[in-house]
């Protein structure tokens, strides 16, 4: 599928050498699909998303964007440019990296996969330059493009399902506002494939087991004392989701803040004195 360059204010990004890209090769680095495109000047390119995935970043686009911010020269046409690319949700603008850009990013990346990917992609690019790799025939281009878009659609659907499960985990459960906010942020990260830096401030908390170890009594006893004295309120802690010790399900669990911990310690001292 031909890719065309949109009009940009940045003169470096709208030179013709980044226009009219066509898919010529599709290979897998591990379980990551890597599509290689070629322009009219015989330059070979790949997209930001796939480059970031191959390098092992959890949030590929955001990670590569940070590298670009740190090293602005990578935005020059020698290394990368912005094009329009067909996706399951329509034509979108995306940055593609030239061969030089691919190598630069792999050297700057600090991931465990960077070195292995650099060695792998060097062989692919070298073979493409020498004609040793069979280039995708025209009648296969449309089939590959459909497969790529279907793969992206499946990934999007998987993210939606995962986000839905995260949001459903709070249904019917009495959770603190902070816990609900954190669940919503996690769901949004899954949907957008982007790391959200914001997190609500959460004070240090203690489980019943933590306080039980500190006092030498059982966690069950701690819970009974807390219930008997009305300590499971926002003043003394928060309700969060924890993995059940008996299944893979997440269940509400109470955690005490410092005030709740101190109150429990005071109550336990009082009980000891009364004996």
Automatic annotation (TrEMBL):
Q: Which SMART domains match?
A: Bro-N (SM01040)
Name the record gives this protein: Phage repressor protein
The Bro-N domain is annotated at 21-132
Spell out the InterPro entries in the cross-references. BRO_N_domain
Q: What Pfam families does the record tag this protein with?
A: Bro-N (PF02498)
Lineage of the species this protein comes from: Bacteria, Bacillati, Bacillota, Clostridia, Eubacteriales
Superkingdom, natural source: Bacteria
Instruction: Provide the species name.
Output: Thermanaerosceptrum fracticalcis
